[in-house]
Design brief:
T2SS_protein-GspN, transmembrane, single chain, alpha+beta, 266 residues, Type II secretion system protein N, 16 strands, transport, membrane, 48% strand
Length: 266
Amino acid sequence: MIARANALPARPASGWRWAVLGALLGGLAALAVFAPARWLAQALREATNGRLLLVNPRGTVWNGTAGVVLASGQGGAQPVSLPGTLDWRLRPLWNGVRAALAVPCCASKPLEFNALPHAAGLELEWQDGQSRWPAAMLTGFGAPWNTLKPEGMLDISTQAFSMRWTGRQLALSGRATLNATDISSSLSTLKPMGSYRLTMEGGAQPTLLLATKEGSLQLSGSGRWNGSALRFDGEARAAPGREDALSNLLNIIGRRDGARSLITLG
């Protein structure tokens, strides 16, 4: 009888342990569900070295809204704010997160992608989509855009496009097309200077192709992405009768070779 009486207090102690564990798990679940949007803004700032900023974030990590600012990092060019706000919705997947980004200024439908972490990095699988952005936003990325100060519209479309980071290596697959329409620059009095198409084809050796659709400034070139850097060779020239109006711009965007300006990256 004495031994049985001494064993009874162990039951309440075990119940308290389960209660504490349940409270901790509930608190962690609530923290994950209601984590403030500013946490996502801070993570994005750190991941992009201050180049992509969410300002005045509201809501949670999973459902929120904020303004978007593009910048070239500390000490860089003047930041550029996109019109309106960005609304995001994140949903967990068994192997990652599904995201939907509503950008009323620049896309009629939300831009969607799956973020899939893996052992050595991260993969972003973009749903096919289209969007239109002001070319002036490029100024926020610093040189050479803050010198060119482009104006016009950038139409971007993607087909089966994905980006996979493995360490510092970036693999690209699918296709992404950029149509730059009625582009002008503060370095030329011609407005607009022309319209252009830039096409990226992913694969083992992703390629980049630049062509002129129409305009006084003729651009062409091609390049390859090797996983860590872009090698691009192109040229710019003025249409007949437009040489004087474009001479200053041609001197800046590349190395002059007679009537041409040679553009080399990488």
